[in-house]
Amino acid sequence: MVLAYLVILLVGLALLFRRDLSTLGKIPYRGGWKLISIVCGLYILQAAFIVYVSGQTVLQMAILILSQIALICLLVLNRHVPGAWLFMLGIALNSVVMVANGGWMPITPENYRYVQPERTIELQTRPPNSKNIILLRSDTTLWVLSDIIRIKLWRRWAASIGDFLLIAGVAQFIFQGTATKSPLLTTNS
Predict the structure, then answer these.
(1) Is the dihedral of CA 50, 54, 56, 57 positive or negative?
(2) What's the pLDDT score for residue 108?
(3) pLDDT at residue 134, as a whole number
(4) How far apart are the C-alpha atoms of 12 and 78, rounded to whole Å?
(5) Cα–Cα distance list, 124 to 68, 76, 93, 131 (Å)
(6) Is the C-alpha dihedral spanning 166, 169, 171, 173 positive or negative?
(7) For residues 179 and 33, what is the distance between their CA atoms, to the nearest angstrom?
(8) 3-state secondary structure string, the chain?
(9) How far from 161 is each of 58, 111, 143, 168, CA to CA, in Å?
(10) pLDDT of residue 47
(11) What pLDDT, on the 0 to 100 scale, is given for residue 85?
(12) Are residues 174 and 19 in contact, defined by beta-carbon separation less than 8 angstroms?
């Protein structure tokens, strides 16, 4: 969710700096509509069966991990696009820590209370409307890659190193992709 808000903020900044967002549509993308449809479909399944449904089923974890793998495949095909490498690294780091901890993004009880002070939740359960799992720091594999960074802007969040790489990748895509003389749009004569 943080990523969605920051993308909106970055697009707003691009417009404020009078960047031409139409150039993003002129970048040559690879993978075609089929692969993009698969990625979008997996993220719709993710929203329908994971974020807004309680539990920790194998199907939920499989959909979550498959959506991450499909996105990485799409990014590998489009590694020439500005920000793709940073975004891919962010997805990979988040996926690694999630797989290492049973398919969910770990968050400590302290950080969860920071984000949701009004809610109480038990250890090793998944909070409502989230892809997190509550784990003690000592029980978290690859803890440094989990949601350990506290952020307070207009609300409170916990983010991972991978999340910051995702944001940096989106920022690079928006600002380098909207440059007036983008090397991606020039043709060799």
Answers:
(1) negative
(2) 96
(3) 93
(4) 25
(5) 22, 34, 21, 12
(6) negative
(7) 25
(8) CHHHHHHHHHHHHHHHCCCCHHHHHHCCCCCHHHHHHHHHHHHHHHHHHHHCCCCCCHHHHHHHHHHHHHHHHHHHHCCCCCCHHHHHHHHHHHHHHHHHCCCCEEECHHHHHHHCCCCCCCCCCCCCCCCEEECCHHHCCCHHHCCCEEEECCCEEEECHHHHHHHHHHHHHHHHHCCCCCCCCCCCC
(9) 26, 15, 11, 11
(10) 78
(11) 95
(12) yes
Q: How far is CA 7 from CA 58, 104, 170, 174, in A?
A: 31, 23, 7, 9
The per-residue pLDDT for range 66-77, each reduced to its tens digit, is 888 888 888 899
- The predicted pLDDT at position 163 comes to 92
- Where do we find the tokens 């075609």? 32
- Ranges in the chain, pLDDT < 50: 187-189
C-alpha angle 159/164/168, rounded to 5°?
155
Cα angle 160, 164, 166; round to 5 = 110
Burial of 72 (0-12, 13-18, 19+ CB in 10 A): middle
Say what the pLDDT of residue 66 is: 83
* Of 112, 103, 165, residue with least CA distance to 137: 112
By C-alpha distance, which of 189, 121, 127, 114 is closest to 159?
A: 114
**Which residues lie across from 150 on neighbouring strands?**
158
What pLDDT sits at residue 112? 95
Which pair of tokens denotes residue 90?
């962010």
